[in-house]
Amino acid sequence: MANETVAKVKVDPRDAKLSMAHFFVAFSALALGGLMGLLQTLVRSGKWELPWGIDYYQVLTVHGVLLGLVLTTFFIMGFQYAAVSRTTGGHSNAARRLGWIGFWIMLIGTLMAATMILLKEASVLYTFYAPLKAHWIFYLGLTFVVVGSWIDGAAQIMTYAKWRKNNPGQPSPLLSFMAVINTVMWIVATLGVAATVLFQLLPWSLGLVDTVDVLVSRTLFWYFGHPLVYFWLLPAYMCWYAIIPKIIGGKIFSDSLARLSFILFLLFSIPVGFHHQLTEPGIDPAWKFLQVILTFMVVIPSLMTAFSLFATFERYGRSKGATGLFGWFRVLPWNDARFTVPFIGMAAFIPAGAGGIINASNQMDQVVHNTIWITGHFHLTLATSVVLTFFGISYWLIPHLTGRKLTKAMNKLAIIQAWVWFIGMTFMSGAMHFEGLLGGPRRSAFSTYGGAKQAAEWIPYQVAQAVGGSILFLGIILVLIIFVNLAFFAPKGEEEFPVAEAEDNAEKAPMVFENWKLWLGITAALILFAYTIPFIDIIQNAPPGSKGFQTWNKW
Amino acid sequence: MAKAELKTKQKTVIEDKSSLKGTLASVFFVGAFIIVTWVGVYYLFLERF
């Protein structure tokens, strides 16, 4: 009976509308960005060439920007906005207005950047490393996306603050707490990319200054770039910790453990950008070493998460009478797409996380740096773990927001979709990992490198990537079919927004977790500790700045 | 009937419902996977550099 009351708790329809607006942009980005991914793998197989003078690097930029930046940011903001609405009782009119303003600014920014990429004015890939120089409208568009996301995030923080004010001494709802941690981490992290864009790349692309300090811009980018991957991952963790237990009919293993792991992510995912710059000259190795240690601290909340999820599953299985070491595994609801789709994502995080630890280790980074292993790695983390969880969320959230039902047929198609994705990614990401270990470079169009023997070794793996990419594109078509069905055609009804409860309701999360002064203070202290001295060093001992380069053919 | 039951030699194993043995085994598996892949690439590094 209690379940029925919970099932009727709905996201306010006015909030639902804003969330859906985010999802329409996100899934449009998925359609176009996914197509670009298919084209890339076909080009790299060496069997096919792009028509009409379209450049490989232009296609690569569209793919990275649309999937890495647009799909993720819009989906995450839409999901978190709905999660905060659902667990706090809804946004105020002021917060909702703010949310819409943020959404429109992000959309305008996206269109500005996309236009410049399509006009071949910005084939600088999604990392837009200087000294590759794009049109200033591209950088301004990205600025709009970031500023819009701050405003969008501010709406969530406002609603959280209002809830805290109305419920003094109470720990906030877990999903809202998690959404706010992720938003705060995003705001702190994006300060870095905002700094490089506003103070370096915009004046330089506008012609106000002639040169750019490449190392400063890359350092500011990676100050942002690593927490960016956690900004993608934490919403998936929100689903794994606080939603999946409800879907399977179990309980959250520990509410406090979940909160602690999110706080650890806030603390340790920012002061670690140097592990992306291990091969870069100009940064003192001692500071690289320090940031590598901080990077390894992130292993702790990751393994806490793994433990907590296994424990949730085992407890549930045993409550259903499962026995033996792994009996609980069999009784999980494998026919429910809302569980199975994110579960495949969770499983993918085991090799994805293991790969990440290799990347962050100084010596081993020399084996894999700038090889397609890295591309394979983030196609496991982002493009499997995170994205499959996002798909899994959509399968109940979209019908919840549109007042429809996930039908049995769509549920089945969703499970098929996830397996198609898994198979495609095993081929593509697997081949990328192995090719990377053989030295195959990332960010490279098809080339035989002057008939080099080593390059010939890579080609079979590139063909395997094209096979995997084609299967994945089929997966994208299936997702889009399900999305359109759930948004417009599925039968009217009520789909639950599942929110799990902790195992022991008497256990109240310690209020220290909501002490923002403390956590923001430690976050700031760690960032200042890890960055201040090396950053001064980078600026003081800077080589002459670089002029801009445009390595691609314009239209 | 009661006597027959008393005579049965089969032990009834009652598993603790709160047991987390499977969780322990699973996290050990994850840890082992991480170590094996790490050591594998470390050997590649030693061979090449």
Automatic annotation (TrEMBL), chain A:
Its main location: membrane. Its EC number is 1.9.3.1. Residues 17-555 form the Cytochrome oxidase subunit I profile domain. GO terms for molecular function: oxidoreductase activity. It is found in: Membrane. Keywords: Electron transport, Heme, Iron, Membrane, Metal-binding, Oxidoreductase, Respiratory chain, Transmembrane, Transmembrane helix, Transport. It is a multi-pass membrane protein. The chain crosses the membrane at residues 21-43, 55-77, 98-119, 134-153, 174-201, 221-244, 256-274, 286-310, 339-358, 378-398, 410-434, 466-488, 518-536. Belongs to the heme-copper respiratory oxidase family. This is Cytochrome c oxidase subunit 1. The lineage of its organism: Bacteria, Bacillati, Bacillota, Bacilli, Bacillales.
Automatic annotation (TrEMBL), chain B:
The chain crosses the membrane at residues 20-45. Keywords: Membrane, Transmembrane, Transmembrane helix. InterPro entries: Cyt_c_oxidase_su2a. It holds the Pfam family CoxIIa. The keyword Transmembrane applies. This is Subunit I/II of b(O/a)3-type cytochrome C oxidase. It comes from Neobacillus rhizosphaerae.
